[in-house]
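Readers outside the structure-tokenisation community will struggle with the description of the input data as it stands. What matters is that the chain and its backbone geometry are given together, residue for residue. For illustration, here is how one protein appears when written out as sequence plus structure tokens:

…
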Amino acid sequence: MNLKQESAAEDSAAVIESIVSQFQTMNLPRLADQAIYLGMPMSNLENLRQTLNSQRYDDEKRRFASRLKYAGIAKERVADAFKWGKDTYPLTEPSVIEYALSIEFVKQQKNLIVAGPPGVGKSMLATIIVCKAIRAGFSAKYKTAHNIAMELREARIENSLSKYVRKLQSCDLLVIEDVTFATFDAKAAQSFFSVIDDRYGRKTTVITSNGSINEWAGNFPDKRMGSALLGRFYEEALLINMNGAEDMRLKRAKGVLENIGRSTNNTSA
């Protein structure tokens, strides 16, 4: 066999290996047999590999979209859309935000607390983390605390409370938005505590807050539960303080108005 033939044989073997690997991933053992493809023309092998690659890409895209929908995320957000630095968030070291975006804390089953006023990027950061976690194979749920309180009450009325609680307990990553905006009645408070208590030290919970979590916990229907919740929220948690940051939504709105004003002036001129 000359060098050209050897090279063609190596290329063919590499393509066959790729095809077999993809059929194995698809759990199709009968098609994951190298003997099927030996002697097949290279053009046919390459077409088959490209078809499988395209199919796998489409399948992964559909699975990701389905998992996003299950999590409660309408659209994927990526880290490039989130700008941070010492000037952007003066009370938080940029390295802490960078670490949060790496989702290492999710892998380590630690919690994250993001505090700050409306419009500074808490939701965007949390959404990006959820999307990255799903990409990495973690299951996730993204909910506002108000919706959790309401859904706990509805689940109790519909006799599906235990199922709903287990769903929140079992996901790898649970994001609870605007925790200080939620009001729990006594029974919903017990169920909410059950969720957080079960996740404690086992799963990752991300909490965003517009106000004081301590004050919110102090007004919890059961004071002891409120105190216990604080401990479970904060122990070994990553903290990101976005207070002192500029309202990004307001900044964008001002930018739009300024552009409209300039366009109007140019038209008038």
